[in-house]
Specification:
Helix content is 18%, strand content 40%. The protein has four helices and twelve strands; from the N terminus they run E-E-E-E-H-E-E-E-E-H-E-E-E-E-H-H. Strands 5, 6, 7, 8, 9, 10 and 12 form a seven-stranded mixed beta sheet that branches. Strand 1 and strand 2 form a beta hairpin.
Length: 228
């Protein structure tokens, strides 16, 4: 099924929804994650010492239930002063149904952030790019907690953030419906405004102030409209 969705400005998205792609139930709860020591500070970017492994792995379900630190990636797909956002599947075990970064995923045990970012782009959005197409931005510790589908979670992540420039109107997206409900295009400044809200704005996955500040700086450095 191919659908064109109106977005901000004159952009249109070409989206095909694929129910056979991605993990059934929105995620693989048995997927193993490597555990990390807590950051020296939860309210600042990681700029010097890399996150330290504890030498332990646990399945996703236990990591989120027990609140262990683990690794994740995010990719913001940008086009001028616009950025692609997704609405997370209602089946997700953290922040279900919320607006979120263009593409995101956890780094499985034994994997690296860059290869994970490339894999998530293929699996969630059907976008196949080269390593050189991704621009590394920053590494941020982030914590969110709540209840998803009746199960409490504490999600403590070291998030490696990447940027990818694509012509959004000309890029065909194949969306894994088990992972993503929908896609939309927003102004970069709007994303910053919404994330700056203490409640995560209009249904966004909440992010801490140090993440939002780094994202705003990254948008500016990409020669997009600086957040107001």
């Amino acid at each position: 099924m191919l659908r064109r969705m109106a977005s901000s400005g004159a952009s249109k998205l070409r989206v095909r929804f694929d129910a056979s792609a991605g993990d059934a139930g929105g995620q693989n709860l048995c997927e193993a994650f490597e555990l990390y020591e807590a950051p020296l500070r939860e309210d600042a970017l990681v700029t010097t010492t890399a996150p330290r492994l504890r030498g332990l792995t646990k399945p996703r379900s236990e990591v989120h239930r027990e609140g262990h630190w683990h690794r994740a990636v995010e990719v913001w797909i940008v086009d001028g002063d616009e950025v692609l956002a997704q609405r997370r599947s209602a089946l997700k075990d953290t922040n279900p149904g919320k607006l979120d970064v263009s593409c995101a995923g956890h780094v499985a045990a034994g994997a690296e952030p860059l290869e994970t970012a490339l894999r998530e782009l293929r699996e969630e959005l059907g976008v196949d790019v080269l390593e050189s197409d991704l621009r590394y931005a920053f590494l941020a510790p982030c914590v969110s907690q709540g209840t998803a589908n009746g199960v409490a979670y504490v999600d403590r992540e070291f998030i490696d953030v990447f940027f990818l420039s694509l012509p959004l109107a000309d890029t065909p997206f194949t969306v894994a419906t088990s992972e993503v409900q929908d896609l939309t295009v927003l102004q970069c400044a709007t994303v910053i405004d919404e994330l700056s809200s203490s409640s995560g704005g209009a249904g966004f996955v909440p992010k801490p102030p140090h993440y939002v500040a780094a994202l705003a700086d990254a948008f500016t450095s990409l020669h997009q409209t600086p957040p107001v």
